[in-house]
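Researcher: Batch entry, complex prediction.
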Amino acid sequence: MSVGKKTPIQPALHKVIMVGSGGVGKSALTLQFMYDEFVEDYEPTKADSYRKKVVLDGEEVQIDILDTAGQEDYAAIRDNYFRSGEGFLCVFSITDDESFQATQEFREQILRVKNDDHIPFLLVGNKADLADKRRVTFEDAKQRSDQWNVPYVETSAKTRANVDKAFFDLARKISSRKYRSEAQEESSPKKSSCCIIL
Amino acid sequence: MATIRHSLQKEVFDISEEKLIGILNVTKPGKKKKKISFLCAAINKEKPVCAFIHQIKENDKGSLKKKNTWPVFELQVVDGKDENKETAEFDLTFDRVYKWVASSVPEKNSFIQVLWKICCRYLPKQKPQFINISRELLKEDGDKIEGGDIIAPGLDQADTEDESDFCALSEREQIDLERLILKSDSAVSDAEAFAEQLSKDLTMLDGANIHSMMASESQVKALMEMIDAALLEADKIEKRLNNYDEILLYVKDSIEKMAEKNFFIEQTNANNRQLLETVNQLITQLEFPQEYEKFLTNPAFQINNLTPVIEAAKALETVIDAQIPPHLIHLQLHFQAVKDQKKRFERLRSEFSKHLARNLNNLFIYHGNDPGESLSFHAEKLALPRHSNIHNELMPYAPLMHWMRNLDPKAFQKLRQTYSNSMSKLYERDIKIFFDEAKQPIAGGKRLRGSGSSQDIAGMSGVAGKLTSLSHSRTGVGAALLGIEREQWGGELDASERQKFDQIFEQVLSELEPVCLAEQEFCISFFNLLSSSEPKGANTSTASTPGSNTSEESGSNTPSDSSRRHPLKQVSREVRLMMSELFTNLEQQLTSFVNTFYRADSYCCLYIYVRLSEHVLSAEDTGSFLSITFGSCLIQAKRNYDNFMGLQINSIKECRVTKKKCGIIPFVTNFELFAQTGESVFKKSERRGDLDKWYAMLVSCMIDNIPRVAIEHQRTPPEVVKMENYHVLYQLLSQLKLPGLENQRKEAKQRYQEALNAYVTQYFGRPLEKLNLFFDGVQAKVASGVKESEIGYQLAFSKQELRKVIKEYPGKEVKKGLEQLYKKVEKHLSEEGNLLQVVWRAMQEEFIQQYKNTEDLIHRCYPGAMITLDFSIEDILNYFSDIALSH
Ligand SMILES: Nc1nc2c(ncn2[C@@H]2O[C@H](COP(=O)(O)OP(=O)(O)O)[C@@H](O)[C@H]2O)c(=O)[nH]1
Ligand SMILES: [Mg+2]
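Model: Structure tokens for the complex:
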């Protein structure tokens, strides 16, 4: 009997970090994405991690999500988990200008820690369902995202609008970036092995 | 009053020929219970006129009766009691005093008036005394007598009729008398002459009277003669009538005799007619046309030529089953003709029965040997061959089979046995091939049967290989159990193979149904299995009446008729018995099929249980052979299912993790796929509850066994094992949203958080261990009552000691300690656990918090000593950043 074929090939793993001020809906977005549910009063945890298998463009991948409170006393505490992230959903609430302003600082810290201007990153304007309480215009947000050269997406964790899109778009970016770098990595050892043969 | 007067007159006084004149409603004075009675004044209608006073009472029955009667001449005193005052009381004195109370004063008065009048009229001389009565009443009356105006009506009438020769003169007589007296001038002067004149006149009148009387005598005589003549005539007529009477008496006698005779004749006639009818009936009942005989003695059983044979057989059945009325049974024994006829029938019956039995027997064996359509022709799709062709060919013989059942039960049973035997062979073969075939497609389309060489290869790689190779190791390593690493599972089926198996199993079940049902319906119709009585000895008089047979047969010719389906609901024991004789290996094959797959891949038992339940629950006829077979298989399937779940539970309890890093325990990891499989199988099943029940048990078992595994693991700290596993379990339950597991989900979450806190606090202190110990001591002192400001004077906690400890932790050391801690945490935590960032984040915060507490304690316990830790928060944050950037 053949046992070997049983070993499942581990699917690619993409690590996503939720960042943004407290109360903008990071947990709500995560839970909606994970469990298809909207929790009105989810007790704010300092941090929790999630893992979900999804099929991304026909390929099964795992998405790891680190959802944090984003209210640490010292920004440096974030360094470590920012460092571990492969892509970021930088969330603000369109009903809260302060949360929009805060994205600037998060962006800078991520760039500094990751030391990578092309790190997969989405600017997410959440609570899009609360149109009558909007404080941040789409244009302002869009302008900022353009300036950062990242996509901007408006979501609603309540109606699930664009929730999957946000996560999938980010995962797709992470995936394609990995593929590119893998290709780069692979190209060099090939040459070296060639050399050895020669 | 008038009505009473009327009824009194009628009821009482008419009888005694009296005339009621006065009436008074009275009671006896002083009596509480007032008994009303009537005082009546009456005079008799005969002469001499006598007046009476009666007391009349109503007796119990409501009729009026005289109670007392007093002649008026005995009346001595009429006492009005008081002549001035009005009172209803009065007394009448006859032999003694009678006291009365009238119903009213005026009535009393008018009654007294009547009495007065009566007395005046009939007892002018010896009138009783009227005392205490208003003069007026009596005087007035006197006037009235003289005036003759107002008299009681009764009395007035009585006057005109009866007074003539007795009482005072009437008015007219008075006038006549006066006139008479006036005529004779001398009347007044010469009374004597007047009297003489009168007597002369009288004599004259007498003479005239006698004269006329004499004249009528002759007429009387003539009348008498006529009467005599009439009497004679009457005598004659009577004599003649007597004559007639005598004659009539004779006639009456003879008529009576004739009637009797007539009755007897009629009865005899009726009896004869009845006898004739009965005999006729007997004859028609036992009439068996000669031309039928040849069909029975030399029958031809060609299928297209059966009709006359069936007709003849039915005719024979009819005459044999003929209902001989019970009172004729003894007759039948005496009638030679009947006996002969019966003998003939019996001969025909046994002869035909033999022919028929032989023929059907051959037919059954022939069909049983029929190779039938081989399964290989069905290669495209798994199918159990139908035998409707055999049924169709046999069906025309059904009436004959019914005939047999009724008239030759022994032969019938034998035939049925033959049928069962030969058909069961057929089915046995079909079913075996069918099930063998059913096992094949799961091996990815590879067929086992075929050329010898490929068989081995297929046997090793295909499912069939799994089926055999795993049959021995259900419980050992290699089984797909929660508590065993997935890599170590055996060759259980993969998801698509399970899907395929499910499909095939469904196909197997739904193929069996129509075949079994068709056979069952055929048997019922053909062998008449639902007929009310089990086959009995022939010739019993209780056999079904002719006619009902025909209707039943006509129904049985169309077994697919929907109305036929209904009685199938209560398939009898006989039917089941026959079916079990026909499908001898069905249950065994089905069970073996089920068990084979269960052994190959225990997960199959989920599919089997659900599918089989579906079929059993949807079965229309729960008592049918197939339902019962499915039912007992279902019991086996349920047993397998429970056993499967039990094994899962056991595997959780026995699970051991031997890897260096514990990570996620197999049963937690495996539960995801397990639950997904369960969900997909039980999605809409009515057995859903059976799954949920086990879910709860499995999850609770996991929650209970995580700490056990945690403690048993050698290298990974138990907190980490618990934290990681409860976390994954919690996430899993959140994602699966299994019903009824909310409590377990919450518990998993809580235990995860407890483990996280325990781990973080247990390890964060490591980098500054001595410092921590020192301040733990300080805190203990403070807690035991030492003032904070005096801590510095304690020997063990003096400033020098503090400085010594602090010196051991220069910034560089701290940084190294933190780096080591991070590495340790990294080593403890598993990749699958995915908690490194969560834990490290918590540890950073905890560390900073601890730093602040220490600073605070130094500040409070060693104020002004200018002692600080060798590193600042900024330093710590930098260390953190450096650690972050270093990987
Ligand atoms: N209407 C609306 N409310 C939201 C939405 N997302 C989050 N919230 C609410 O905003 C509050 C904060 O959300 P939470 O996810 O805890 O924010 P976090 O601190 O960023 O994790 C909660 O009461 C949520 O119910 C959204 O898209 N629409
Ligand atoms: Mg949150």
